[in-house]
Amino acid sequence: MNRFILFLSSNAGLGYAPVASGTFGTLAGIPVFYLLSGFPPLLYLLTWLALLFLSFWAAGAAGKIYGVADDGRIVIDELVGYLVTVAFLSFSWNAALLGFLLFRVFDILKPPPASWFDQRLKNGYGVVLDDVVAGLYGAVALRLLLPLLNGFLGG
């Protein structure tokens, strides 16, 4: 069971990257965004909620295995947060890559209340919820910047 938990929490091993594990972990979000982008909004939301609750469990269990609540190898939270950033958008490379960049910026900066979750909840919920908040910031920024990028690049 521990191997399964660590597999899930590391996004199939991406969290074991020797540097920037969160950035590598977020990469799992791009193909998942591609797969989910064709879903009707309600199905996207229900799928995301299932991933959210799975990530609470996996992050919490992995934190206990590692002995550190927010071990760098736990990156399932990056997947969930990235999917907030790109939620309900049609897949395009512009959306996928700009969403990736924006999510990573907000995940690293952790503007409030993301920093509150990160600092105060040392469990699976805190590990994941700071990324959900970063994803919300990313979603707003993406929706503001994507039309500009599409206009600039013609796509």
Your description of this structure?
The structure is a single chain. This protein has 8 helices and no strands. The chain has helices at 2-9, 21-27, 29-36, 41-66, 76-85, 93-109, 114-120, 124-153. Helix 1 (2-9) packs across helix 4 (41-66), helix 4 packs across helix 8 and helix 5 (76-85) packs across helix 8. The chain is mainly alpha-helical and 155 residues long.
Question: Could you give the topology of this structure?
Answer:
Blueprint: H1 2-9, H2 21-27, H3 29-36, H4 41-66, H5 76-85, H6 93-109, H7 114-120, H8 124-153
Keywords:
155 residues, mainly alpha
Structural class of the helix and strand makeup? mainly alpha
SSE pattern: HHHHHHHH
Note poorly predicted spans: none
| Biggest sheet features | none
The fraction of residues in strands falls at: under 5%
Distance between the first and last residues' Cα: 45 Å
Continuous helix count: 8
Question: What helical percentage do the residues reach?
Answer: over 70%
Characterize the overall form. globular
Using the CA coordinates, give the radius of gyration.
15 Å
Number of E-type strands: 0
The average pLDDT value, as a whole number, equals 95
What's the short story on this structure?
Helices cover 73% and strands 0% of the residues. By secondary structure, the protein is mainly alpha-helical.
